[in-house]
Amino acid sequence: MAKTILAIGGHIGDAELTAGGVLASNAVDGGKSFTLALTAGERGNPPHISVEDYKRQKISEAEAFAGLMNGKAYVLPYADGELPDDDNVRCETANVIREVRPDVIITHWKSTMHKDHDRTHRIVRDAQFLASVVECERIKGERCYAPVYFTENWEDDPDFTPYIYVDITRGFDLWCEGMKKHWFITNSRDFAYYDYYTSLARMRGCLNKTKYAEAFGVFDRQKKIKKEMI
Question: pLDDT at residue 228 above 70?
């Protein structure tokens, strides 16, 4: 069934890599798939591009990816590596949730490697609460609740346990097309992002008995209530 999905990352490219197969499959089904990056991730700039120019490039890349997903890319104005852990960013995130009104929210698992990822994990948890119950001047629009799922990311791997596997076979080719919109995914000399995440999708697909799949975690409290499905 087509859904509205909001995938939230600490940087442009995080959600596209880790949840892109679900976003693409949802788009193929006729749903709407949105991304929100709390920073642009501009400090991963290649030597030939300035940080400022790379930020503009990454925003354009995010918009190109979201366009393929029948959605929109949101990018907050915080600097890469300097994401604040405060109420302002939580309210801004809650406002995007209320604007998009997703059926599903996807974000980072807690991270011991990257503080922007770890802060995003906490920010989204609180923003979900704010969007669903709080009425105040800083949070606009009608209340909106959606369950949160956590992505499988090599930088957030410690203590991550897959709980749900989602078949992304029907959206795999579209996801691959979208990933190629991002320079770093196919050109980084630090990590083979494209190869890693497409291979991970094949491995998870084997476990799911489908060609391709993505794995997601949930809070322990969700396991005690019911197994919500993306």
Answer: no
